[in-house]
Write a sequence for this structure.
């Protein structure tokens, strides 16, 4: 496997026409024989994980949350750690599809569909945790969602947890609508290309009769820009509100004003790492190197570096608050539970994973070495999980009343449910790769149109000029 | 519509020209508008910027509806909380006021976005008359490539100046791959 590719200067490399772009994406759906052993292996891993999730949910519902390691004072542990981790991973999708669209970053076109799918699946995994943490979700509905019920009771809107319900459910709904809307024109393309009856009927139903008329596109573009404009404040608000769950409380180590921006940056950091963890193998396995180029990877690494430094700044500020606040409990938490003490290994691993290792991306060569990029992304994924672990259970073990300090130990079921959601996520991603267009077909054609007309040359940077440039794609039009 | 009228007017739905580049479609649309055609539409595999202007299609309903949706959402989010906390379920927590505005912002904000986003999506679907499984344009020969790599311009028989033969000759002047009459 070639780990090193030279940096390209156009967003679609190789010789491509509208038909060939469409073919390289559409064949993943139309030609099942392309999904060989690699796909089946991950499909079965995902399926097994989904089974594991089913088993652990069933046992949890039967036995109650006592099967988890949560205790007093550590009443939030793996469930909330995993909730925040998953929802953070989702944020990269919205960032790519909404914020980069508003900034007219054309390179997003080849990764947005993939990242949006990740958003939806990650939010599905995230949503399971707080719901199941209620113990009996089916009787929790009346205090989660405001509806007139026979008990005459309403949710408490002054609680950050209730804000969370609104933020996460809105986020899921809007992401799903945004994603589906982008898929409609591609479903129409698949309807017209599909050769078997079942595919034709399924895609015809999903495409809602889309015919690519100028009126359709006109309103589609309006709605697309509006949804992007709405998703941008939404994605920032979701993780801000998630951080309020902690920041507006008086728990030691949580009551910090830097939480909202640092959580949002952390979410983007984790999300981009997850995008690369999936995208690098997928582009190699399915031959999508012309569409997801090394330039895309390079830029994602730069975003990883930038958000990583914001997160690192957050860690430094936490330490600063710990000492500068003069609050003995805060100081004790920083000194005795983070720097030293039984959990210090996790804290230092966090600093290493999120603070030190991503700094390797300052070196341009490392951003173009796919193996390094993949490994660093993987480490960042672990680091972001550790960050939530350091914030949530570790802060809770250290109480205002030292007599009630208590260690937290996860049980087998905590790990099984975490593994189960990872499996479920992989399972959904594999189905997505098999049955839906993994890259936005019509946006790639639009991009190719601009490449042909020379509108979307990547701005020439010193670094790009120094490196070897790929030949520009042929100006030839579509073959008749 | 009576049967006799339908027979008379609907033998042809439109005359459709097929092009191989967006630029040719654009110039054909531009000159069709200048020639005075009003009832026409273009079909392309991806949005082409400037095509709406070339055809003379203006529509700003979606943004206005979306704004109205957002306003409704904000009002809904705020009044829901106000109603619950002041009228239906007043709860005194530590002597704090029943209406504490800062704590009501997040839900109001999320409701605004939820309503505005859903309105944008559903108004796009509804104004485009989707889902619509059948449309006369699908009778165009080779139309399946309208979602792939061909660009179509349809001048509809509903247009006041429509005359199938003249329209055909007009479209032939713009280097189409083919021009066809399409049945409704």
């Amino acid at each position: 496997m070639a780990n090193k590719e030279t940096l390209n200067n156009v967003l679609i490399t190789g010789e491509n026409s509208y038909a060939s772009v469409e073919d390289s994406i559409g064949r993943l759906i139309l030609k099942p024989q392309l999904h060989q052993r690699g796909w089946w292996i991950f499909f079965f891993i995902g399926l097994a994980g989904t089974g594991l999730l089913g088993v652990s949910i069933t046992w949890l519902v039967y036995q109650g949350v006592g099967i988890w390691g949560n205790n007093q004072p550590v009443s939030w542990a793996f469930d909330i750690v995993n909730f925040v981790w998953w929802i953070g991973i989702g944020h990269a999708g919205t960032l790519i599809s909404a914020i980069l669209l508003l900034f007219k970053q054309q390179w997003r076109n080849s990764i947005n569909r993939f990242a949006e799918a990740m958003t939806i699946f990650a939010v599905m995994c995230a949503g399971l945790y707080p719901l199941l943490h209620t113990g009996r979700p089916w009787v929790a509905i009346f205090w989660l969602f405001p509806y007139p019920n026979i008990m005459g009771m309403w949710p408490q809107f002054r609680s950050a947890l209730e804000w969370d319900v609104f933020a996460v459910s809105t986020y899921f709904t809007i992401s799903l609508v945004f994603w589906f809307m982008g898929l409609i024109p591609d479903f129409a393309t698949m309807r017209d290309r599909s050769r078997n009856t079942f595919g034709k009927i399924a895609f015809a139903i999903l495409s809602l009769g889309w015919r690519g008329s100028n009126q359709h596109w006109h309103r589609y573009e309006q709605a697309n820009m509006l949804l992007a404009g709405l998703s941008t404040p939404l994605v920032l608000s979701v993780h801000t509100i998630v951080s309020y769950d902690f920041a507006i409380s008086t728990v030691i180590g949580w009551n910090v004003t830097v939480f909202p921006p640092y959580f949002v940056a952390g979410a983007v950091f984790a999300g981009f790492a997850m995008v690369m963890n999936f995208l690098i193998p997928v582009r190699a396995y399915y031959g999508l190197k012309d569409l997801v180029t090394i330039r895309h990877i390079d830029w994602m690494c730069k975003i990883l570096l930038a958000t990583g430094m914001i997160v690192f700044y957050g860690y430094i500020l936490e330490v600063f608050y710990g000492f500068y606040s003069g609050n003995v409990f805060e100081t004790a938490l920083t000194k005795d539970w983070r720097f030293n003490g039984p959990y210090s290994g996790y804290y230092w691993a966090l600093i290493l994973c999120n603070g030190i290792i991503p700094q390797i991306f300052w070196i341009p060569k490392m951003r173009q070495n796919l193996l390094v990029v993949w490994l660093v992304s993987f480490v960042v994924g672990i680091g972001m999980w550790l960050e939530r672990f350091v914030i949530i259970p570790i802060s809770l073990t250290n109480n205002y009343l030292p007599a009630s300090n208590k260690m937290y130990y996860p049980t087998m079921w905590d790990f099984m449910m975490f593994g189960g959601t990872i499996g479920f996520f992989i399972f959904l991603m594999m189905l997505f790769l098999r049955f839906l267009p993994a890259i936005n077909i019509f946006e790639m054609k639009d991009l190719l149109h601009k490449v042909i007309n020379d509108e979307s040359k990547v701005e020439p940077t010193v670094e790009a000029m120094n490196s070897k440039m790929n030949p520009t794609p042929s100006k030839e039009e579509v073959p008749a | 519509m009576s049967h006799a009228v339908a027979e008379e007017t609907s033998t042809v739905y439109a005359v459709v020209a097929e092009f191989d580049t967006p630029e040719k479609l654009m110039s054909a649309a531009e000159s069709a508008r200048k020639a005075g055609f009003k009832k026409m539409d273009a079909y392309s595999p991806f949005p082409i910027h400037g095509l709406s202007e070339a055809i003379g299609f203006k529509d700003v309903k979606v943004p206005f509806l979306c704004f109205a949706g957002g306003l409704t959402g904000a009002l809904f989010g705020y009044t829901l909380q106000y109603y619950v906390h002041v009228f239906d379920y007043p709860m005194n927590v530590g002597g704090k006021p029943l209406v504490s505005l800062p704590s009501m912002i997040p839900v109001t904000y999320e409701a605004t976005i939820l309503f505005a986003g859903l309105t944008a999506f559903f108004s796009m679907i509804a104004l485009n008359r989707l889902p619509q499984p059948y449309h006369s344009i699908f009778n165009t020969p080779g139309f399946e490539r309208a979602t792939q790599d061909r660009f179509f311009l349809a001048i509809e028989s509903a247009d006041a100046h429509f005359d199938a033969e003249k329209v055909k000759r007009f479209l032939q002047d713009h280097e189409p791959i083919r021009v066809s009459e399409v049945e409704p």
